[in-house]
Amino acid sequence: MADLSGTIEFFEACLPPLTSGDYAVKVDQTLTQIRPDKPFRTELDFSVAGPRFWLNPGEVYAVYPPGNQDGAFGNTLPHIVFTRRTLPWERTLDGSPPDDKKSCPWLALLVVSDTDFLKAGCPPAKVVARKVGELITPAEPGVIGPEIRAADLHAYESVDDLCNTVDLPSGLFSEIAPAREDLPYLAHVRRVTTDNKETQSLRTEGCFSVVLGNRFPETGTSGIAGKNTAYVVSLEGFQRHLYGEPSARQAKHVRLAVLASWDFFCQGNTTVKSLMKNLKTGQLTLPDRRVRQSAGTDPVRLVKEAFELGYTALDHRIRNGENTVSWYRGPFTPLSYLKLETYTHLPSADAALRYDYDTGLLDASYAAAWQLGRLLALQNTHFAKSLYRYRNQERRKTKTWLREVELQKEYALPAKPVEDEIVETLRKVPANA
Q: At which of 338, 362, 379 does a domain end?
C-alpha cells in the first residue's frame, strides 16, 4: 500500500520577481575600435500582466467551505486556495513596490451573511458585471470606488473591460474589512507533499497560496441554516478605507472588484447522524409540475415512468454531429434492475448505446460507464504504459508483415521463406535414412 503521509510547510509570503506593470529594458553597447563616441542602443518594452480586476477561474484550486454546501462551519475561517504561490502579493494596496520585510497582500476574503445586510437596512448585495470605468469612477451618487485613475491602467487594461463588482454598505464594509496591519496574517503559502496523492490540477510541486477570511460565518438557529457569502475582493486603492479608517463612512456604498464568490450555509449542530435522520427517502418523483398537470397522454406517461426508474434526460451530441436528447441513469440509483451476467466486447462507447423503440431515444448509461472505465484504467500509470508498449509492438509487427507482403509481390518470392520449407522437409525425412 502506498504511503500517503507527508509534510506541510508554511511560508509567510512569496513575492514575485516582477510585480504587475509596464517595464522597459534599454541596452547600450560601445565598440571602441569602430565607433567609440556613439554607442549602439536598443530598448524593449514589455508588460507583466497580473490579475487586477478579474481572475482566471483556473487559478482557484479549492474553496472552503465548499460552495452551496450545508454543514457545521461555524468554527472555521473560510479560505480560498490558489494554484499560483505569488498571486496574493503580485500587487500592492497603493501601487508602490512590495516590501520584502513586511509583505502585504492586495486580496481579501470578506464573509457576509444575510443578517449583516438586514442590520444595514438593505437587501443582500448582488454581484454585477460592470465596466472598469464604472468601478473606478462610479456614476451613482454616494458610491465610491478604488482610488485608481484611468491613467494608472496598464497597456493591457482598458476602462471598457468588464469585471464583476459588488456594492457593500459603507458601514458594513468598515466593520468587516480587515485592518492594514492584519492583512499580512491573512495570506500565506503552503507547500505540501503530493506524492501518491490525487490533486485537482496538473500542478505537482505542491506549492499553493491561501487567503483567509477575518471572521467566522454566521450560524443558523432553530434548525435553519444561516446563509453566508464569501467575496474575494481587490483592496487596491482602498488603503485609506480599511478597518479603523473613517473615510469609507463618508459614502453610502463602497464598490469593490470581485474576483471570486460563493455561497454556503452554516448550521450549529450538523453531524453525520443528524444528516441521516433528516434524509428524505421514498420513490423518485418528477420535478416538473407541468408534466404532472398534463398526465394521461402516452408521451407524458413514458417520461414519468422513466423518471420513476431513476433516468434523466440530457443533451447528447452524437458522433455524426447531430444534437438529440438521451436517457441517462447513474450507477448509484437506488433501484433494483436486471444485471447482465456476460458482456460482449465493445470496441467503443457508441457500441454500448441502447435504443429504446418505445420512445425513440438512446440510453447512454452503459456508454458513459464504458468511457468512465476507460479513463479510470488509463489513469493507472502501469496499465497505461503496458498498453502503450503493446500497441507499439503490434504496430511494428503489422508494418513488418505489410513490408514482407510488398517484397513478395515485387520480387515474386514464395509465400513462405525458403528456410521454413527446408526445415519442414528435414522433419519429414526418417532418422535412419
A: 379
Distance in angstroms (rounded) separating the CA atoms of residues 353 and 331: 15
DSSP 57: G
- Report cis status (omega within 30 of 0) of the bond before 65: yes
Query: Do 117 and 195 reside in the same domain of the chain?
Result: yes
State the chain's maximal CA–CA distance in angstroms: 118
Beta-carbon contacts of 307 under 8 Å, excluding residues fewer than 6 positions away, are 284, 285, 286
Return the CA Rg of the chain.
Answer: 33
The boundaries of the domain holding residue 99 are 48-266
Residue 277, domain member (yes or no): no
Cα distance between residue 399 and residue 332, in whole Å: 45
- Do 69 and 162 share a structural domain? yes
Q: What is the pLDDT of residues 122-179, one digit of tens each?
A: 899 999 999 999 999 999 998 999 999 898 888 888 999 999 999 999 889 988 999 9
Q: How many structural domains are present in the chain? A: 3
pLDDT given for residue 431 in this prediction: 54
Helix (H, G, I), strand (E, B) or coil at 252: coil
Alpha-carbon distance 93 to 272, whole Å?
43
142 and 249 in a single domain? The answer is: yes
Residue 395 and residue 357 share a domain: no
| DSSP, residue by residue, 327-359 | EE--TT-S------S-----SSGGGG-EEETTT
> Which residue type, as a one-letter code, is found at position 407?
L
| Residue 95 to residue 55: CA distance in whole angstroms | 18
Q: Write out pLDDT tens, residues 73-106.
A: 888 899 999 998 999 999 888 878 777 778 899 9
Phi-psi bin for 108: left (phi > 0), alpha (psi -120 to 50), beta? beta
pTM of the model: 0.61
Measured from the Cβ of residue 396, the count of other Cβ atoms closer than 10 Å reads 10
Q: Scanning the structure block, which residue is given the C-alpha cell 496523492?
A: 197
Q: What are phi and psi of 51, to 5 degrees?
A: -65, 150
Instruction: Judge residue 300's burial from the number of C-beta atoms within 10 Å of its C-beta, 0-12 exposed, 13-18 middle, 19 or more buried.
Output: middle
Report the sign of the C-alpha dihedral through residues 186, 187, 191, 196, in that order.
positive
**Residue 275 lies inside a defined structural domain of this protein:** no
